[in-house]
Amino acid sequence: MAKSSADDEELRRACEAAIEGTKEKIEMSIRVAKSRGIWGKSGKLGRSHMAKPRVLAISTKSKGQGTKAFLRVLKYSTGGVVEPAKLYKLKHLSKVDVLTNDPSGCTFLLGFDNLRSQSVAPPQWTMRNVDDRNRLLLCILNICKDVLGRLPKVVGIDVVEMALWAKENTPTITKQQGNLQDGPVAASVAEGDTKVTVERELVSQAEEEDMEALLGTYVMGIGEAEAFSERLKRELQALEAANVHAILESEPLIDEVLQGLESASNCVEDMDEWLGIFNLKLRHMREDIESIEVRNNKLEMQSVNNKSLIEELDKLLERLCIPSEYATSLTGGSFDEARMLQNIEACEWLTNALRSLEVPNLDGGYANMRAVREKRAELNKLKTTFVKRASEFLRNYFASLVDFMISDKSYFSQRGQLKRPDHADLRYKCRTYARLLQHLKSLDKNCLGPLRKAYCSSLNLLLRREAREFANELRASTKASRNPTVWLEGSTGSNQSVNSADTSTVSEAYAKMLTIFIPLLVDEVIIEAL
């Protein structure tokens, strides 16, 4: 018989080295095969169902007054060195299941109560032979009994069979007394040169004697089948006769029991009727609750939709609302210089409001709404009113400004004082309304034509007056001397010199006038174009 891996001291030392530092003591280490396959099924097994070599090690650890027991699973690394893979606490071991699907009986499952929630099936452990299986399971059960004081549920194998196996494979047992906190007491077994370690018995001496007596009776019955059958028949007849006498003697009790059963049956029928009524009421209540839930869901959805609609309408109303101060400025406000900032702000708001109601900046679904169309018409009316008022004011302003400059003689050349025309004051006063003109251009481009015409007409009057006054003064300062006698009687040479001097003076005067007025006209044309 091959040597068991449980007796491999080198394997034990490798396991102790793998868990070094945990202060645990190895009680048993044995090689097993781990798999998740299903016995008795044909077909190829996947990679997850292939058997993998593992080492199961039973270890204990003293902590305080008690002892903890563990089941360690160790795997082989690439270098053939065992290393810890998983750790199970034996206090959670609730079931030991030897699979009946395995004909050899060497495969078993270990069920832990703290792993029931996992969806992955527990691993199957396959031993080399039944002796190794019994040896490992016996060690686990003994440790559970000694350390934990209880045994897990054993399925697929008889505990008595294991006890008999332990007795047969333990010819010499030397027990050592000790406390439970010192761990399970090991027994040394001498079998040739092989040492077999067997833990304490799974059953007591009294239980073992009862089992042997029962087994002896069972064997005796097998050997004397006819006598045993006759004895069983006699015992059965005696029991039946005793039952008949007991029934006859307990007839009043039976009647009382029957009455109680009948009343209980009536109560059950009444209860069943009441339960039917309650079930019907509950069904109606369930239907009512479902209808209420449906209506509630609809109301919640309607509430959410209404909230979103109100938010959208609030945003739309913000666009449609016309501030009172802007409406006042656009419809009847003054165009004085002190009020120009308010007028410019009103123009900017009106321009943005009109743009916000256009389709690119407004959802197409809102563009055809009645309120939007009415508000757009109202804004267009405001725009028309403001453009009309502003245009009329600017026309009057240009005319009044030019009239003021024409009436003020300080702007023109006077007798004995030739003055260059200066439009700086005119430009400064017109610059105040430059931004207003820009907004009028963005609101209505058609209004710029009449404004240009009015500005040019007023400016034409000013330029004509300036040119006339400048020309008069220039003519007076460059007037040629009239001497017909000299012109008629003088020599030809002197007449030619006088005429040439007069012509030169007039040419200089006209050149000076053109030099002054041509740039002035160009500047005004450029300003008008802008």
What is the gist of this entry?
The protein is α+β, with helices and mostly antiparallel strands and 530 residues long.
Shape: elongated
CATH fold-type name of the largest domain: PH-domain like
SS strand fraction: 5-15%
Terminal residue distance: 117 Å
The main sheet comes to: 8 strands, mixed
Taking pLDDT < 50 over at least 5 consecutive residues as the criterion, the unreliable ranges are 39-47, 172-200, 480-499, 526-530
Query: Approximately how much helix is present in the residues?
Result: 55-70%
CATH class of the largest domain: Mainly Beta
CATH architecture of the largest domain: Roll
Give a description of the structure.
- The strands form two sheets. This protein has an eight-stranded mixed sheet with strand order 4-3-2-1-7-6-5-8. Strands 9-10 form a two-stranded antiparallel sheet.
- The model is unreliable at 39-47, 172-200, 480-499 and 526-530 (pLDDT under 50).
- The longest helix has 70 residues, at 251-320.
- The chain has helices at 9-18, 130-148, 159-168, 205-223, 225-249, 251-320, 324-332, 340-356, 364-367, 370-407, 424-431, 434-443, 448-477, 484-489, 492-529; strands at 25-35, 52-63, 66-76, 82-89, 93-98, 107-112, 124-126, 153-155, 187-191, 194-198.
- α7 crosses α8 and α8 (340-356) packs parallel to α12.
- With 530 residues, the protein is an alpha+beta fold.
- The chain folds into three domains: 5-203, Roll (PH-domain like), CATH 2.30.29.90; 270-320; 327-451, no CATH class.
- It is elongated and about 170 Å long.
- It is 59% helix and 13% strand.
